[in-house]
Amino acid sequence: MSAASHRILELSPEYRSEAVARYLWQLDDQTRRLVEETRDATPEALAWQMAPGANTMGMLLAHVAIAEAHMAAVLIARRPDSDVVGVLGITADDDGLPLPPDGRPPAILAGKDIAFFHDLLKRAREHTRRIAIPLTEADLDRRVVRRPPDGTTRHSNVDWAFYHLVEHLAGHRAQILLIQHLHAAHAGA
Amino acid sequence: MKVTDREILEIPTGYRAAEAALTLAELDEQTASLMHDLEGITPAELEWQMRPGMNTIGMLLAHMAVVELFWIRTAVARKSVFDISDVLGIGMDDDGMPLPADQPPPAGLAGRPLAYYRDLIERARAYAKQAAAALTEEDLGTSFQRTRRNGKVDELNVRWVLYHMLEHFSGHYGQILLLRHLYRDARKTA
User: Fold this and answer.
1) pLDDT tens string for chain A (189 positions)?
2) Could B171 and A173 be called an inter-chain contact, meaning their C-beta atoms sit closer than 8 Å?
3) Interface test with B, best of A11, A25, A99, A167 (most B CBs within 10 A)
4) Contact A45/A186 with Cβ under 8 angstroms?
5) Where are the alpha helices (DSSP H) in chain A?
6) What is the rounded distance in angstroms from the CA atom of residue A116 to the CA atom of residue B42?
7) Residue A100 sits in a domain of what CATH number?
8) Which domain does A52 fall in, by range?
9) Domains in chain B and their CATH numbers?
10) Cα–Cα distance, A24 to B159 (Å, whole number)
11) Which ipTM did the prediction report?
12) Of B4, B51, B175, the CB nearest to A174
């Protein structure tokens, strides 16, 4: 019989809240798979842009790290603002997203290797984990009100923020897989 | 006018396990957001294929419904249940995935409007909600084995299945957004 794969979601006792432990397991699973899937990506592939205005794999990898560092601080720790530079060593705008229709990838990401991007993911997760460990079940319904520059008012709770981190990472991870596929077809053409 | 976004995840009632209720609420939010992003999409865009062998948006939408129903049945039955046509009216392979290289989309999806795919997803979701409502906390930690169609055996628990239903949906949602971007680019250069 073929070897069995192991798909058991187990909750770490490291966290005070089982629900928070479950979200962190999910985030760690997404990141583990993303790191495996991009392990052999070259700097050329990471910077490959299908057309002006389109995101590169490198941009998306930087984006998920930046988004996690920002959202964990503002939406989960409920700080007035995030310190993306302090956590990651790059600014919140260095992913280049959103690119204008004819935009090119940000120069700061040019030539970066996969180790650079994997390190961003690792730093963001360590930051999230530090915030998540002391949270209790009751903390999950804590509300956050934001008034971003677009004039809207946004109400969220901590539960939603964790869910959003998971689905945001899953969505961009799948986009990276699709860009990998397109790049391979382009390189083979 | 200022718009207020309410991003509050609340646990629906009617479930025996809060975790199962939460997953279904998350799936509902994903679906509402996806359908908002797909407003106005034409059958031509739904069946647009960037090149032979690649998935279309329609294929991905059908796949999301098929997979959701497959996995909730697997979670409840603790084994693989490959028949889904009684609920969806299409079979496991009718999404066309995985599409062999150089192949066009499946003929069964040709010309289908968004309403067709929305109905597939709604049917799968209604079934998933009913099945998930019966799951207990004890069920979620239960591990079991399932045999894939290729003979490989997975060991998994119900908690993982619920997570997989969400991350699978979210992943393909992300790809659909990228395909819409590529479709617009292709139309500009055509």
Assistant:
1) 455 688 999 999 999 999 999 999 999 999 999 999 999 999 999 999 999 999 999 999 999 999 999 999 999 999 999 999 999 999 999 999 999 999 999 999 999 999 999 999 999 999 999 999 999 999 999 999 988 888 889 999 999 999 999 999 999 999 999 999 999 999 886
2) yes
3) A167
4) no
5) 18-38, 43-47, 57-71, 84-88, 114-132, 158-188
6) 41
7) 1.20.120.450
8) 18-188
9) 18-189 (1.20.120.450)
10) 14
11) 0.95
12) B175
Domains identified in chain A, total number: 1
Of A3, A9, A181, the CB nearest to B157: A9
- What is the dihedral sign for C-alpha B128, B131, B137, B143? negative
Cα A71 to Cα B42: distance, rounded to the nearest angstrom = 35
Query: How many Cβ atoms sit within 10 Å of the Cβ of residue A81?
Result: 9
Q: Which amino acid is at B69?
A: L
**A4 within domain boundaries:** no
pLDDT tens digits, B65-101:
999 999 999 999 887 777 899 999 999 999 999 999 9
Show the tokens assigned to B148.
């894939």
Burial profile B129-139: b = 16 or more Cβ within 10 angstroms, e = fewer = bebbbebeeeb
Give the span between the Cα atoms of B109 and B112, in whole angstroms. Answer: 6
Name B115's bridge partners.
none
